Amino acid sequence: MAKIQLNGKNIILKEKLTLFDLIQKYKLNLKKVAIELNGKIIIKKKFKSTKIKERDKIEIVHFIGGG
Amino acid sequence: MKPKKDIFKVANKILKSRLIVGTGKYKNFKETAAAVKASGADMVTVAVRRVNILDKKKPLLMDFLNPKKITYLPNTAGCFNSEDALRTLRLAREMGGWKLVKLEVLGDKKTLLPNMIETLKSTKILVREGFKVLVYCTDDPLLAKKLEDSGASAIMPLASPIGSGLGILNKVNLKLIIKNSKVPVIVDAGIGTASDATIAMELGCDGVLINSAIALAKNPLLMANSFKNAVVSGRQSFLSGRMKKTLMASASSPKKGLI
User: Which helix (H) or strand (E) holds A59?
Assistant: First the structure.
């Protein structure tokens, strides 16, 4: 179990997950997002090998409409 | 008649249209996509935001505007310091491999005028990191030159504050910026209606960026098309070289043969 902060929200993960698992869990498209873990950008190749730990702060972003 | 070899090139990217459009403020993505199509633009600005993790069915911009067919220009809208702007653009680059970005570092919440000190600082860092940066800036000719010297790929002076629709407030400054700049000058922000865009193009701007004026029109699709024509019109007018202004009249019909 890990208590994390995901996009500003406190979330409890019951199982041990990698960033790749997290994307799957929320049904996100790998190609359409970017992830920042504790202030550092994680490249897509490393999603599978990056395990989520207690108190991690994760930001998942995508493109939206803007001027 | 189209002028020959009038190529619009921003950071090695050739664009067919001199009109770049924003994708914010529309009713929905369907309307966004239709307006972009009607505008004829082949580059659109987009923002970087948190994914809504609780709403899995929320539509995605990318499902309506294919980034393989239309160039996405990620912006840093809403960033009030260099750190946030850099963070946003680094994430944008990671998302899709985009090096071409629009930098805007805002300084004031009410006017959304750019903080030029932070903007200059950010431009230098981004250029060092290999980004091709289009920079939103004030219409100050000296600062615009400083941005160019710092490696900006294009200068994007405001016509008037973002979303104000006030049109071009300082034509003289814009003209000076255009005259001094070796990189493209794209008027960004404040354009309210099609004639404003024509005037910008007639001044010699290389392009214009429009969002609110299209999105907030009663008929956004018609306005998008109107801007498409306005930009082409202004460019052709600029290339044609206008007639001289005189104080007194000059008859258009010959005097000879007058009865």
Answer: strand A57-65
User: Which residue of A lies nearest to B33 if distances are taken between CA atoms?
Assistant: A65
Per residue in A9-67, pLDDT (tens digit) is: 999 988 899 999 999 888 888 888 999 999 999 999 999 999 999 999 999 999 999 88
Cβ–Cβ < 8 Å for B212, B163: yes
Residue B180 burial (CB < 10 Å; 0-12/13-18/19+)? middle
A33/B61 Cβ within 8 A: no
Please state the domain extents for chain A.
Answer: 2-62
CB contacts, 8 Å: A67 with chain B: 22-25, 45, 47, 75, 77, 162-163, 209, 211-212
ipTM of the complex: 0.90
pTM of the model: 0.90
List CB contacts (< 8 A) between B61 and chain A. Answer: 62-65
CATH of domain A2-62: 3.10.20.30
